[in-house]
Design goal:
Length: 175
């Protein structure tokens, strides 16, 4: 089993924009911390990118049935007061849903952020095209002043990373 950590966006695709930062940089930093922690625990890890470039889509979603795929994103909204964390899984995937619930629960426990809950999607490319249980985590709104500041803090990133790792290890254990 391999854990694939996907830092959302990259290169010319900057993702959502905040006041002073952009999504692709935050997702890369967090993916690297999550990858580091998982390797330290003995897991085999693949990062879909480890630098500021846009991976080819087919390579991004390369996976086997027994892998786990975690895509990391920041949210954006026209209304700057919107905030919170939400996690998507591929509609109909029981394992994906269990993984999403474990990660979302762990993130909310750790951060006490607004719980926007677990959601299913049959539309998101990385969930649709991966061969294994896959989730897409929206770790906060870069368009919210408070959350943008938090998302750019190393302490908060470590907190998020530890929570994601805990969720991966707990997957399927809590409902
Ligand atoms: Zn994104």
């Amino acid at each position: 089993m391999k854990i694939i950590i996907d830092a959302g966006h990259g290169g010319s695709d900057v993702g959502a924009l905040g006041q002073f930062s952009c999504e692709k940089d935050i997702t890369l930093k967090l993916a690297k911390v999550v990858g580091f922690l998982l390797r330290h625990l003995g897991y085999e890890v693949r990062l879909t990118r480890d630098d500021d470039y846009l991976p080819i889509w087919a390579e991004r979603v390369e996976s086997n049935k027994d892998d786990i795929f975690i895509s990391i994103h920041c949210n954006g909204a026209p209304n700057p007061s919107v905030q919170g964390i939400e996690t998507f899984y591929y509609k109909g995937s029981e394992k994906g849903e269990a993984l999403a619930r474990a990660i979302q629960g762990s993130l909310i426990d750790a951060t006490k952020e607004v719980d926007r809950s677990v959601k299913s999607s049959d539309n998101l490319y990385v969930l649709r095209r991966t061969k294994c249980p896959a989730v897409l985590v929206e770790i906060g709104f870069i368009t919210n002043e408070y959350e943008e500041k938090m998302l750019n803090s190393s302490d908060y990133q470590l907190k998020l990373a530890l929570a994601i790792v805990k969720g991966i290890r707990d997957r399927g254990l809590k409902k």
